[in-house]
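Late entry, 1,3-dihydroxyacetonephosphate complex.
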Amino acid sequence: MISYKDLGLVNTKEMFKKAVDGGYAIPAFNFNTMEQMQAIVQAAVETKSPVIMQVSKGARQYANATILRYMAQGAVEYAKELGCEKPQIVLHLDHGDSFETCKSCIDMGFSSVMIDGSHLPYDENVALTKKVVEYAHQFDVTVEGELGVLAGVEDEVSAEESHYTKPEEVKDFVSKTGVDSLAISIGTSHGAHKFKPEQCELVNGVYVPPPLAFDVLKEIETELPGFPIVLHGSSSVPMDEVNTINQFGGKLEAAIGIPEEQLRKASESAVCKINIDSDSRLAMTAAIRKVFAEKPAEFDPRKYLGPARDNMKKLYMHKIVNVLGSNDKL
Ligand code: G3H
Ligand code: 13P
Ligand code: ZN
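Prediction complete; structure with ligand written out below:
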């Protein structure tokens, strides 16, 4: 059993309280590679932002769970080396799918876990989430639960409402489970194709998707005043990255994300954690494709992973400063 406290990591408790009170959101960036980790730390240090580094099941399979944990420990030391005296870094399990996965992460030094029982019948979601909370809280590890199913791109807008989190359930869920934060569904979804073009309005050549369900968010906030709310699926799918990818041989058609103004508005509410993964993948791919196209003789990975790292850092800094507002909060 390794405590995250010995690794210099923190849980989300204080961080979320300050974010809710201060009207900003903490960035939760997924990482699978060293370059992503370095870019996240550089961006967080330079903007003086707390940050959540999150690891999915897929990341654990790809990179090895132990390696990722040591990378997070390395992230804390790297942040100090870059001049941050007291980094506020959370190592979080993203979309934990079982008690065993959550326990394994807690035992190896994660400071926060998500148990995603959103696909289960309500009572089963409550029971599973409660079990994880009871284990995690013994070690001061914070837990994110989820209610409501994130809409997929196949769903019709008209049918989305049925996937939204039901405000009448949230109070009961939080009190029965003891979770520290709650992921909700108000119109975001995972990946780079969040909406079909026909669901959007075309404004000056740009697809503008339907707005998030701020009315549902408001009702949830009324049920749970001041309680930390999480938004998954919050990549904006920047057009410049998509265009670069397509310009240099990629084929990303009708990639549409959540407009940044909507996320900025959400950040000012009880939404205090915003999950971004796809945008980092786009930034990395765009930079690598550009190098491959412009310098076809290049074969030193540092010559394309370096620009990829720089491009991701730029993206992370932009999110922190211009969208979430978590800069200068250390
Ligand atoms: O929520 C999903 C995250 O973007 C992680 O994706 O499971 O492909 O690592 P992944
Ligand atoms: P995106 O696919 O929108 O980046 O969402 C990431 C996420 O929610 C990770 O849990
Ligand atoms: Zn997610």
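The chain has one domain: 4-320. Will revisit in the morning.
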